[in-house]
Amino acid sequence: MNDVEETVTRAHHEEWARVVASLTRRFGDLDIAEEAAAEAFATAVERWPSDGVPPNPGAWLNTTARRKAIDRTRRESKRDDKHKEAQMVYDDPPEPLGAIEDDRLRLIFTCCHPALAMEARLALTLRLVGGLTVPEIARAFLVGESALGQRITRAKAKIKAARIPYRVPSAEDLPARLSGVLAVLFLVFNEGYLATGPDTDPLRHDLTAEAIRLTRLIRALLPGDGEVAGLLALMLLTEARRTARISANGELVALDEQDRRAWDAELIAEGHRLVRERLAAAAAGVAPGRYQILAAINAVHTSARDFHDTDWSQILALYDQLVHLDPSPIIALNRAIAVAELDGPEVALAIVDRLAEALAGYHAYHATRADLLRRLGQSQQSRAAYDRAIELAGNTAETAYLTRRRDQLQ
Amino acid sequence: MQYLVSVIDDRSNPGSTDRQPAISAFNERLIAEGYWVFAGGLADTDAATVIDNRGEQAVFSDGPFVESKEYLAGVWVWEAPDLDVALKLATEASKVCDRKIEVRPFL
After folding, report:
1. To the nearest whole percent, how much of chain A has pLDDT over 70?
2. What is the mean pLDDT of chain A?
3. Which of A140, A245, B17, B37 is the most exposed place for a label (fewest CB within 10 A)?
4. Residue numbers in B near A167 (CB within 8 A)
5. pLDDT grade, residue A97 (50/70/90)?
6. B2-105 architecture in CATH?
7. Per-residue pLDDT reduced to its tens digit, B35-91
8. Substitution target from B79, B84, B103 for chain A, most A beta carbons within 10 A
9. What is the pLDDT of residues A317-347, one digit of tens each?
10. How is chain A split into domains, by residue range?
11. Per residue in B13-35, pLDDT tens?
């Protein structure tokens, strides 16, 4: 990549959401904003190599996009006098959010509105906030481009027809709405971290990186929110182990077998800083949410020199706290893994077996049972559990790992 | 912006029948706060008649246009500045009516 291309890519990362957000605010229309932003970036790709990069790329992109949008609204208003009526409603939040007021926050809350289907929220967020193209998003979620394009078009049409506002929710609604935004970002991250599909790379760095980038953006916009910090820390501490997690031949490497020297020390340090910040808040009496607890669990793992050095009692205490907040069977399953390290596989298996009904269709349930049965020397039952886990697992690296473990059984 | 707010009942799991006083109080509030345009409860779908006069002769048929487990039990029309306001009211309405609520914008 040459310098100009690099500058365009960087400008795209840094400025896309800002350009779309400010155009949406000014023109009250997501379609106009998206198209004008895309045109402005296309113009940059065309002109910057010959004209040189402007001194302030962000300002140049904003101005260019605004001109494109004005041209378009002029053309449209001749056709349709009602366009003013169709403008999105926005107003300032009833209570100020602090010093930072940014149109990108409005954009994020609109894209993640609970009246939109989850798959539409994912697609809209990646397109309008993340700036990914329709083919890129279609590839990420293994759907056809035209289907994905329609999904985005339908979502934008609903925002317009039903008047989903372009607004940061009121202080009273903010926690619930923000948790909806974080759920979208966590889904994007997880799809990258444990990508599904037989022909997909087991790890999609593009998706994990995008999720982290967007979470960083929200963190910059809402620096005081504990769950935002928690989710960012959780992603960083997970991403830090990315390269150690898949072997050269594409097999998943479990935590106990990972080469910890391959972990990204910088990401871990940043994640630990965030976790410490939240621990200080918790000490001051602010109850942590689930992302903060999950981040703390990952901080314990990434603090250990090796697997045996792990402070399992600390991990179990954190899981106990988490079960309190979220009594889901998946959390109970992960808690059982910590129990196995502290009290042995037999105690853990008894807990896991109680989850049979709820988790019968979940590959990790069978994989966990298979491992516990293996440790208890019950090879035959372990093999059957591995078989079921392999059948259900959608990630190629995980399937390879489970197959090897099954075939190593005595 | 006007929204059609439909109250949906379920034959296999009907909502409670003692909601009228709560609904009346809620209506008073909708009127006082300027959201109320229209409200009406509907008779059972058995009382519906469908008319089709697209052909040569009008055809009348007994019963609703679609038979389903879920059916429309009543409607409101609300005037609200945006969907967030309508959804907030609808969230309350669902509790007040003890039934599901659909919010749909008018064109």
Report:
1. 92
2. 89
3. B17
4. 82, 84
5. very low
6. 2-Layer Sandwich (3.30)
7. 999 999 999 999 999 999 999 999 999 999 988 999 999 999 999 999 999 999 999
8. B84
9. 999 999 999 889 999 999 999 999 999 999 9
10. 3-80, 328-410
11. 999 989 999 999 999 999 999 99
Provide the 3-class DSSP secondary structure of residue B62.
strand
| ipTM of predicted assembly, 2 dp | 0.89
CB contact, 8 Å: B107 with chain A?
yes
The answer, yes or no, to whether residue A127 has pLDDT greater than 80, is: yes
Kindly report the nearest CA distance between residue B83 and chain A, in angstroms: 5
Q: Which residues of A touch B81 (CB under 8 A)?
A: 89, 163, 165
Nearest CA in chain A to B82: A163
Domain A328-410 has CATH 1.25.40.10: yes
Q: Is the pTM of this model over 0.80?
A: yes
Residue with tokens 């996009």: A65
**Would you call A250 exposed, middle or buried from its count of C-beta atoms within 10 A (0-12, 13-18, 19+)?**
middle
Cβ <8 Å between A162 and B83 = yes
Distance CA A116, CA A112 (A): 7
The residues, ordered by sequence, that sit 6+ positions from B2 with a Cβ below 8 Å of its Cβ are B37, B77, B78, B79, B80, B105, B106
Considering only CB atoms, which residues of chain A are within 8 Å of chain B? 89, 113-115, 161-165, 167, 169, 173
Q: In one letter, which amino acid is A334? A: N
Give the residue from A11, A21, A67 showing the smallest Cα distance to A44.
A11
